[in-house]
Amino acid sequence: MKIDIFATVVANVAAAILLGFGGNALAQAAPKGSAEAAATKTSMCIGCHGLVGYQTAFPVVYHVPMISGQSPDYLTKALQAYRAGERSHPSMTGVAKSLSDQDIADLAAYYGKAR
Q: CA 109, CA 115: separation in Å to the nearest integer?
């Protein structure tokens, strides 16, 4: 009898997790990026990343990488890391924190497409 009750409790907890938490995780799948939608969102990027050989002077001299042609997956992960504070650069952190998940997906699609 104790085993049946334990199995029932475990099954109910598992179902609650899958339906309550897992259901939300599944419903909130990563957005699909649109290069066309990003065309109006690139102004914050091109000021630094669109200039060949550009280096920033704040907070230190830093070579700004070209992002055009980068892997969309890499760009998504990099922007998410800046937004979460896992990567550190004042300008990029500020920009990334202003982006939604959809903005990030769109920008990754746009710059990943430009190969």
A: 11
State the pLDDT at residue 77. 97
Taking alpha carbons only, the member of 50, 96, 63, 64 closest to residue 77 is 96
Cβ-based neighbours of 65, under 8 Å, separated by 6 or more: 49
pLDDT at 48: 83
Residue found by looking up tokens 């952190």 in the block: 93
The band of 78, judged by pLDDT with boundaries at 50, 70 and 90, is very high
The secondary structure of the chain in percent helix, strand, coil, rounded to multiples of 5, reads: 60, 5, 35
Q: What is the dihedral of CA 100, 105, 107, 113, to 10 degrees?
A: 180
Query: Is the confidence at residue 54, as pLDDT, over 80?
Result: no
Could you tell me the two tokens for 7?
A: 């199995």
Quick one: pLDDT band at residue 115, thresholds 50, 70, 90? Answer: low
Q: Provide the CA 97 distance to its chain's centre, in angstroms.
A: 10
Rg (CA), the chain: 21
